[in-house]
Each structure stands twice: as structure tokens, then as C-alpha cells.
Design brief:
Layout lengths: L16 E2 L2 E2 L12 E2 L7 E6 L5 E6 L11 E2 L2 E2 L3 E9 L5 E8 L4
Parallel strand pairs: 2-9
Antiparallel strand pairs: 1-3, 4-5, 4-8, 6-7, 8-9
Length: 106
């Protein structure tokens, strides 16, 4: 008889699915900025900026349920257009950047 041990190191791959368009019109379809798989990486912080570089949303531990951006700033719907996001993971140096289009068909 013999025994052996194996050490397995699990690496975070940060494979997110990031929506590029949202339609916050109240129909419960694409009404918020959806970031798929982010719930597997709870040590995150999401920032959203307008085209002037003004931060209009900041959420820690973004999870698409309790913490998410619904296309508003200070309680008001943002104008249609492109917005820019930064997703940081506080337990690594991984950062995602990109844009999200807001289209409200009122």
C-alpha cells in the first residue's frame, strides 16, 4: 500500500459576461446593467461614468440582485447614450473597462 497527496490550486479566471445595452423602461427586460457571472467574484467594485467622466454609479459587491445599476443617477433616469464602466476586483489587480448603451423607449 502507498499514499500520495496532490495540491490543487484554483485560479480565478474572471470570465464575465458583460451586457453592452440596457433598456430601463420598466418592462423587466434589460432594465439594469447585467454582469453575468459576477456573483462568483464578490470582492468587486463597479463604477459607471457619463461621457463627461462624472461618476454616476458606484457599487461594491455588485451581484445583479441587491447591488446593480438601474440606469438612474440621483433618482432620475439618465439620458439615452453611451456610459462607461470600470469593474475592479479588490482581491486582485484584474480590471474590466468598456461601455454600456442606455436606450429608453418611453
Amino acid at each position: 500500500m502507498d499514499t500520495a497527496s496532490v495540491r490543487v490550486k484554483v485560479l480565478k479566471d474572471y470570465k464575465l459576461i458583460i451586457a453592452n445595452t440596457m433598456t430601463p423602461n420598466g418592462d423587466n427586460i434589460n432594465d439594469y446593467f447585467w454582469i453575468g457571472m459576477i456573483e462568483h467574484y464578490p470582492n468587486n467594485e463597479v463604477f459607471v461614468f457619463n461621457r463627461y467622466g462624472q461618476m454616476i454609479f458606484n457599487g461594491k459587491n455588485y451581484d445583479n440582485k441587491n447591488v446593480y445599476w438601474d440606469g438612474t443617477y440621483q433618482g432620475n433616469k439618465v439620458p439615452d447614450g453611451a456610459y462607461y464602466y470600470v469593474i475592479k476586483f479588490t482581491d486582485s489587480n484584474v480590471i474590466f473597462k468598456g461601455s454600456i448603451n442606455v436606450i429608453s423607449s418611453n
